[in-house]
Amino acid sequence: MSRNNAGLSRERIVAEALRIIDGMGLRSLTMRRLGDALNVEAMAIYHHFPLGKEQLYSAIVEYISDPARALASPAAETAPEDEATPETDPEPEPRPWDQRLRDWACDYRAALLRHSGALPLMIHRRPDTVAALRATELHYAAFTEAGLPPEEVPGAAAALTSYVLGAVIHQVRSEGLPSSDPAVLDGRFPTVMALSSIDVDHDRVFRTGLDALLAGLTAPRVQHGER
Amino acid sequence: MSRNNAGLSRERIVAEALRIIDGMGLRSLTMRRLGDALNVEAMAIYHHFPLGKEQLYSAIVEYISDPARALASPAAETAPEDEATPETDPEPEPRPWDQRLRDWACDYRAALLRHSGALPLMIHRRPDTVAALRATELHYAAFTEAGLPPEEVPGAAAALTSYVLGAVIHQVRSEGLPSSDPAVLDGRFPTVMALSSIDVDHDRVFRTGLDALLAGLTAPRVQHGER
DNA sequence: CACCTGACTTTACGTAGTAAGTCTAGGATG
DNA sequence: CATCCTAGACTTACTACGTAAAGTCAGGTG
Q1: Could you tell me where the Acidic residues compositional bias lies (chains A, B) (predicted)?
Q2: Which distant-in-sequence residues (6+ apart) come within 8 Å of A34 by Cβ?
Q3: B107-159, pLDDT tens digit by residue?
């Protein structure tokens, strides 16, 4: 490897950055550490992301927002098992609209959970990537197929996306470290105490809520007051 | 105000920190700037938050997670109008369970939207504050009153919280600055193009999705496949 | 009056992002 | 072959950040 070709690329940089984030947390992702991981000086990264760290952040968000990529490569948790499906499934037979939405939701959730350390980066970035548009297209087509009137489709898609992202964050929050002095569960919260023994299976809860939301979104509407 | 009593307090520090976050963004909240805003040296803050900035962050999250506080003080957007309700409403007549949930959701959403710059701080902090427990108590009681079997109550509450937080983030994301090179809306996304003229009223969309979710959560359940 | 304590300040250090400059290899040009 | 150019990688240097440690100082207490 000659001096000035370390084989850097955006893809490789983002993958390495995500490995650092997943392993040590977002705060630990520094240009110097990233450079070290890539066997390169920190400033070399600026050649591929001339706008600096913010641009790198955006690339990371774009990466994890695309389940196809985020679920494929960067987690070598288990040894690469030989897949039952040999390669690209030749003819993905058309699934019903609700199954397509459920599948998307599960994939997106898995991608976000896998890289939950990068979640704070998503909040203030507009989802105007190709992956985001692909997801919206899937949502709109499915809800249209479900029989929603056009003017209700974008709202339904927004609700679905909101729920999935919110569920991921809810899970991540609940699994976070306890704060320095957590509030005590005492008599002020009788119902919580009564139900505190029920343990949560995040996967199950997610799917139940998802079913409820989809059912509510595609059922005949009831008007409610303005509050 | 003598030299060594600038009248600092956790409350005042957090309020000022939130003003900085709301006005200039989370990245701009530095100890020095916060000290300046409080007419104090940066290190003075460490007297009230000895564990440093992380502890300050936690206090900020606790603050905005309590709609009663977050919606009250720190936004002097409009001049303080004389309220129609004179003081603490003397006897808050009991509202039906669904109205209580809807009211909570709207208040929580408003609090988060008002301080959306602080949202990234929430993601990895466990919601174990008094305000969070109060909210959970409200949820559990309401869903129990709605007739949900006890084992489904925590899941329903989680779904509701997920939706509200997700909806706020969805809105904030959609209002963020466009990325450096946004994806083009071309023929690959026909349904999106067809519906792109529909403009979104975030408040309305939020309430519609909320109604759908509540309806789905409290309606008789239908089992779906494992995906 | 001496002393203490709590509230803020001063000084200083290590690390962060990154602007600006330097260096090297390899191709283009004469 | 000698020279120059350029893109990419590396170095230096600057500013700003979080915060440890020590200092300062008013007001209360004995």
Answers
A1: 79-91
A2: A13, A16, A17, A20, A42, A45
A3: 999 999 999 999 999 999 999 999 999 999 999 999 999 999 999 999 999 99
Evaluate if residue B4 carries a pLDDT over 90: no
Q: Angle CA(B92)–CA(B162)–CA(B113) in degrees, nearest 5?
A: 70
Q: Residue A114 pLDDT > 90, yes or no?
A: yes
What are the distances in angstroms from CA B155 to CA A124, A198, A203, B44, B136?
A: 28, 10, 11, 44, 11
Q: Which domains does chain B have, with CATH numbers?
A: 7-64 (1.10.10.60), 93-178+187-227 (1.10.357.10)
> Helix or strand or coil: residue B65?
coil
pLDDT at position B76: 44
| Confidence bin at B90 (pLDDT 50/70/90) | low
- Range with the lowest mean pLDDT among A73-77, A182-186, B52-56, B59-63? A73-77
Who's near B107: CB < 8 A, 6+ residues apart? B67, B71
Instruction: Give yes or no for residue A188 having a pLDDT over 90.
Output: yes
Residue B122 CA: distances (Å) to CA of A12, A52, A171: 30, 25, 12
Average pLDDT in the B78-82 region? 41
Which of B10, B173, B210, B223 would best serve as a mutation to test chain A binding (most A beta carbons within 10 A)? B173
Considering only CA atoms, which of A156, A161, A158, A145 is closest in space to residue A98?
A: A145
Chain B residues closer than 8 Å to A62 by CB:
179
Separation of alpha carbons B148 and B84, rounded Å: 37
Segment B91-118 shows an average pLDDT of 93
Does residue B80 have a pLDDT over 90? Answer: no
**CA–CA distance, A138 with A141 (Å, rounded to integer):** 5
| Strand C interface, B 150-209, C-beta < 7 A | none
- Closest residue of B to A149, CA-based? B195
Would you state the structure tokens that stand for residue B151, as one six-digit string?
A: 């084992």
Contact (Cβ atoms closer than 8 angstroms) between residue A155 and residue A113:
no
**DSSP per residue over B190-204, as a string?**
HHHHHHTTPPP-HHH
Question: Using N-to-C axis directions, what is the helix angle for A153-174 and A202-218, rounded to 10°?
Answer: 160
